[in-house]
Amino acid sequence: MTQQLTEKSDVYSFGVLMLELITARMPIERGKYIVKMVTNTIDKTKELYGLDEILDPVTDFKASLKSFEKFMDLTMKCVEESS
């Protein structure tokens, strides 16, 4: 990312914030970027998109799987590097 504040950087930041909410992690933790961690782990063919190991254990995402999928789809669109 550039150091300029633009609508594009705002959307990306919003996506990072959404990832923080569902994982209860910082954007950069122990040298690992949350976006890369989720991007490398996500598998839309699995329940909870295969992210159960990195999701916030306090939140029950299985209660509303459809809402979780919509949330994740929007989140991933926000953090796409090509968008």
From TrEMBL:
GO terms for molecular function: ATP binding; protein kinase activity. Pfam families: PK_Tyr_Ser-Thr (PF07714). One of its GO terms (cellular component) is plasma membrane. Keywords: ATP-binding, Kinase, Nucleotide-binding, Receptor, Transferase. Residues 3-47 form the Serine-threonine/tyrosine-protein kinase catalytic domain. This is Putative leucine-rich repeat receptor-like protein kinase. It comes from Trifolium medium.
